[in-house]
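Q: What changes when EPU is included in the input?
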Amino acid sequence: MIEIKEKFSIKKYNTFGFDVTCSYFSTFSTVEELKELIIIHKNNNYPLMVLGGGSNILFTTDYKGLIIQSIIKGVEVISETDQYVDVRVGSGENWDEFVEYCVQHDWSGIENLSLIPGFVGTCPIQNIGAYGVEVKNVINKVETLEIDTLKKHEFTNPECKFGYRDSIFKRDLKSKHIITHVHFRLNKKHEFVLNYGNLKDELQKYDSISLKAIRQAVIDIRNSKLPKPEEMGNAGSFFKNPEISLETFEYVKKSYSDIPFYPQGENRVKIPAGWLIEQSGWKGRSIGNAGVHNKQALVLVNLGNATGNEVLNLAKEIQNSVNQKFGIQLEMEVNVV
Ligand code: EPU
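A: The predicted holo structure follows.
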């Protein structure tokens, strides 16, 4: 049974904690309920937005339309061999609870993605990633409902066109399909990914490497650097790490010999945006109620009753500073509404 709430506060539904409302709000627990909601949206002709965990979104104003959220649950084993297990997971499952479930079952593949806020159904959209792993590595396919036709579709991994914090669901299919289930292939034979700098260091504290140890190490690193949204509103990394040409990199390196970088093929390098922001003098600074986190400059925070526009304004100031100092344009990772 769907229930539509009117003039609904979404303060608790966005991790920045902005005090905004939407005209209508509803959850759906099945694909049939989702169809019903889409029909209501079409009959009434107001805008529609699907919200996951609200962990990658910045509202600058009240939303004049219908916001819907998946509460489709379930982790279903589809097939299994000695090597791997294929599972189909409802889009409304909490991401980190799913990671914990896999670790408990001794299935590897996503332990490095522990503690990322959000839902299973939104993880493919921006191809979440951390500590050397991206979720695209373990996604078999994505099930959706097409808004126009109300037909179910399946997208194989290559059809999802995954990239760094990117997929077809952010581009060609944006606002056209709603994700209902995600299929993952997890390994029973463990292949740990331990090459990411501070994860390797953190794991030295453990006698042996296991999925549980990796999960705990990632949780400890994240807790030491990233503010908890319940305590200080934020949306994780606010910007993407920019990819620049080797030429620009060599030029910047002349003045900043300690610039950290990750080579991307032969002619491009990725630079940590957090470093660029810190070098531009923004770490720990604030404008009004919007601040730059003092332990990780890539994270913008709501210091009190900030509005989305205050945070957006801070973001623009940062973009200008970084551009003036380094000639590098930072691109937002967070979606602005
Ligand atoms: N750095 C600074 N100052 C800062 C922050 C970072 O100098 O204030 C430099 C340091 O040299 C550090 C390097 O940047 O070694 C990388 O920092 P970190 O390991 O914290 O990772 P990141 O590049 O800032 C990315 C992801 C995070 C992910 C971590 C770990 C993006 C946009 N962000 O951050 O993802 O957790 O790597 O893999 O790619 C997210 O997307 O919301 C997110 C938190």
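Observations recorded in class: The mean pLDDT is 96.
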